[in-house]
Amino acid sequence: GSSSAEPDLDGGVCNAVGAVLFAGTRARTVAQNGLEERNLIMTINERAEKAVQLKTSGGYNCSQAVTAALADQTDLTEEQLKQIAAGFCAGMGNLQATCGAIIGAGIIAGAQTKGRGTLPIARQIQEKFHQKCGAIKCGDLKAMTDGKPLCPCEECVRNAVLIYGEVMGVE
């Protein structure tokens, strides 16, 4: 096989960020197949902050940050979701179109609903995102007005997670 020239985004900084993010979260122990397993129970606000931290770590795009923060809503791992969401940055593959954070929330909604009834949920997420952020296209969200963007990426990922929680009833 050939070696990748891309840096290992799962090491170092990301692990340190993860350790900080999970400090202080509530935990419970569940028995599964006779083994005890520690599950972290995060509130939707904690998940939103996790998404922001992942985005600002430099190792995740907006879509990846949202899917990773909501990974426990699916049967997939954070790493699998990170791979699925890899091409949805900078507005659908760097085209400045639909915000990757919205796409990430839609990916999770699809996984959560097993693809049944996902379209009206995705539409509701987009509509609420537009109301909160003022746009749904990455190019519009990043457009500079009075020296600052309409909605910076960190706010987009935070809002996408919070809106997912609101629409899907996750507290």
What does this structure look like?
Helix content is 51%, strand content 11%. By secondary structure, it is mainly alpha-helical. A hairpin with a 2-residue loop joins β1 (26-32) and β2 (35-41). The protein is globular, with a radius of gyration of 16 Å. Strands 1-2 form a two-stranded antiparallel sheet. A two-stranded antiparallel ribbon has the order 3-4. α2 (44-56) packs antiparallel against α3 and α5 packs antiparallel against α6. The termini are far apart.
How are the SSEs placed, and which strands pair?
Layout: H1 13-22, E1 26-32, E2 35-41, H2 44-56, H3 62-69, H4 78-84, H5 100-112, H6 118-133, H7 138-141, E3 144-145, E4 148-149, H8 153-168
Antiparallel strand pairs: 1-2, 3-4
Helix pairs in contact: 1-2, 2-3, 2-8, 3-4, 3-5, 3-8, 5-6, 5-8, 6-8
Entry summary:
With 171 residues, this protein is mainly alpha-helical. It contains 8 helices and 4 strands. The chain has a two-stranded antiparallel sheet.
Q: Report the order of strands and helices.
A: HEEHHHHHHEEH
The number of distinct helices, counting runs of at least 4 residues, comes to: 8
Report the strand count. 4
Going across the biggest sheet, name each strand in turn.
1-2
Structural class: mainly alpha
Q: If you compute it from the alpha carbons, what radius of gyration comes out, rounded to the nearest whole angstrom?
A: 16 Å
Top keywords for this entry?
disordered N terminus, 8 helices, single chain, two-stranded antiparallel ribbon, globular
